[in-house]
Amino acid sequence: MLHTVNKSSFERNSLKSCINTIDDTSVILLIEDGVISATKNINSSMIANLANQGRVYALQGDVEARGVSSKLVDNIKLVDYTGFVDLVVEHGTSVSWV
Amino acid sequence: MAIKKFMYLNRRSSFGTVYAIESLEVVLVAAAFDQDVSLAFIDDGVYQIIEGQNTNGIGMKNFSKTFHALGDYEINKLYVSAESLEERGLSADDLMPLVYEDEDDNWVEKSSVKVVSNAEISKIMSKQDVCFSF
Amino acid sequence: MKISIQINEGPYQHQASDTAYQFAKAAIERGHEIFRVFFYHDGVNNASRFTIPPQDDRNIVNQWAELGIKNANGEPELVVCVAAALRRGILDESEAIKNGIDCNNIHPAFRISGLGQLIEAGIQSDRLVVFGD
User: Does Transferase count among this protein's keywords (chain B) (predicted)?
Assistant: First the structure.
């Protein structure tokens, strides 16, 4: 499954709830203000392991718009909108943690 | 046409925003489509089905009573996160007694509400074809 | 692949409609079919032809219209939930007449219909993606 998270972990608990509820084969795509959770910060431990497993993506346009390209957690994979479409196609049902 | 599995993911309480009531409106319409419907209540979504909601003081419609009708539409899989309840100082006893009559078991009245762990919600979610979030 | 989209938020207030538009555009360019875009909650405000952004800003309503998402009969598949729309003052001609209001504001690239269209989109599509708050 593909799980999208669009809020910063400093604003909402959606990333935490998503991580608590996903199975071992799911991947996470951080979009909009969700990309703030892709940066190195006090909450990074939430996603570090998943990122090391290659299961965390971030939308490049949102990362660049927010000026945080150089601050990303290791092994976050950047995708453009076409990459977003491909993730939706490849990973089956998608769940939005709005 | 094959029956698809639809999950409705509810993570917000009832009245602060419109999402809860408009989600319930979709669920009621979905009942007419003969698909497999599950509702998940996670995070503050658990407050949508808490017993004793009274909106007299806020001038808004108390739609919580509508949840009682779901059983008549064969919508009887309401999964509630045990962890979300516990974090909020709630238990299954605080929830509305939502029931349905099981046609496969001599119309015995059964509870529609199933308090389950996040790990179980994860398994149920993995089997869905479509997940609506509001 | 057939993909449908649900949008829960209005234009400008929230990025949801922008993200959904970029996603839909990329999907079409990738050769996928956008079966339907369903506008719900405040998302119905994406359908107002009265939307007038400043000249140096994007026009979200027109962007959606220009994608030309239609079905085989040529009807728009940018679908606005009727109950959510009437609550928020988005009207087509027939709803305006029915309710005694002297004008309507829906953009012709959109159409108003019932919530069943969202469920049907879920049934008919290979994927359904939700964009919201």
Answer: yes
How many domains does one find in chain A?
A: 1
Report pLDDT for B2.
Answer: 78
Query: Are the C-beta atoms of residues B132 and B23 closer than 8 Å to each other?
Result: yes
Tokens of C44: 């119905």
Q: Which helix or strand (DSSP H or E) is residue C123 part of?
A: helix C116-124
The interface predicted TM-score of the complex, written ipTM, equals: 0.97
CB burial of residue C56 (10 Å; 0-12, 13-18, 19+): exposed
Domains of chain C: 2-131 (3.40.1260.10)
Any A CB within 8 A of B122 CB: yes
Domain of residue A78, residue span: 2-96
Q: Write the class of the CATH domain B5-133.
A: alpha beta
pLDDT in tens, C27-56: 999 999 999 999 999 999 999 999 999 999
Going B81 to B83 to B86 to B92, the CA torsion angle's sign is positive
Does the distance separating the beta carbons of C19 and A31 come in below 8 Å?
yes
Interface contact B131-A94, CB threshold 8 A: yes
Mutation site for C-interface testing, chosen from B24, B36, B132 by largest number of C Cβ within 10 Å: B132
Interface partners of A (3+ CB pairs, < 8 Å)? B, C
